[in-house]
Amino acid sequence: MRITDVVFHTVAVPFRTEEVWAFGRRSHLETVVIEMLTDEGIVGLGEAAGYPSIGVVEQAIVTSTPLVVGENPLAIERISKKLSILGAWHHMKASNPGIGAIEMACWDIVGKVCGQPLVTLFGGPVREQVEYFYYLSQGEPGAMAEDAKAGLGRGFGTFYIKVGSPDMSIDLARVASVRSALGDGPRIRVDANEAWSTAGALGALGRLAEYDIELAEQPVLGTNLSEMAYLRRRLPMPLLANESSWTRPMQLEVIKAGAADVVSVDNQMDGGLANLKRGADLCEVAGLPVLKHSLGELGIAMYAGAHVIASSANFLFASQSYASFLADDVIDGCDALPYVDGKLSLPTSPGIGITLDRDKLERYKEAHRRSVPSSPVGRDFSPIWPRC
Ligand SMILES: [Mg+2]
Fold first, then answer.
1. pLDDT-based confidence at residue 94 (cuts at 50, 70, 90)
2. How far is the centre of ligand 1, averaged over its atoms, from the C-alpha of 240 (Å)?
């Protein structure tokens, strides 16, 4: 079997409500869907988050396509090495989402050839459903509380709040309001996206601790592992690495520095599903549980990642999703993905186990052509962070 072409479709799928965070806002998800064509008629599906931008991702796919045409899609290790070395893709954070989509499509083809769902190829299921968090968009505390109740009503058990506001009282009011709405029991995770100094993080998280925080995500710069290690020993809740752990080499450095209690791993940022599994395994050996980070994904990437998560015992925390935002999808059989009690069940068909809804694909390709770019980093970005 040989790869004959890689076709991509850039889509813009609407959110129910705007995603608002410290660095900007977006009203829809821009992402790139790929179809890998083969000489035997089997088509593999993949998806790349629009990071760092749609244009960069499209160019990574365009530039990678001549390197994979003529290759056997079942030879995934060879293809991944070729793309990461011969493709001159040493700018990993920029190129990996595109490379990861190509690798994802190869796995879809392997599953279809074998007649097995992806989870079987990654070792078989250790869990039948995969749990995700509910992302609360930044806003007025009362509105965030209402959103939290909506998520609770849908059965989600973990709620994610962006913190690191210039005024700490804003963070406190938001977290207090959400905790009051949720009551005891549901988990609240906070993410400062590197906003604080070490002293600032100690002060802020010390005050937030009364609201029973599950994890404190990337409170300080991800490049400063010694400060993360210092913080980890002093925080009243576990420290979650994210910006510091995009790739396996970075995860290894986090482990060596003792810089986190829990580690985010991400196939998009690390160039493939096999690397997602390897990252989870690497952290497991170090005694650190993981969760899957998301840059925003539709059903293709969500289910592809879910197969890998379901195959690894080390995913012990709810992974990231855009369940609270996405109003629709481009896969057959559903609008927004069918979360039940905050969990997705794995598709059972071969490969990723989904097919494209062609009408929606065309509709959202047209929406992308008509839309203004919806970057997660917006015009209201402020370079002034609450360091102290
Ligand atoms: Mg984060």
1. confident
2. 9
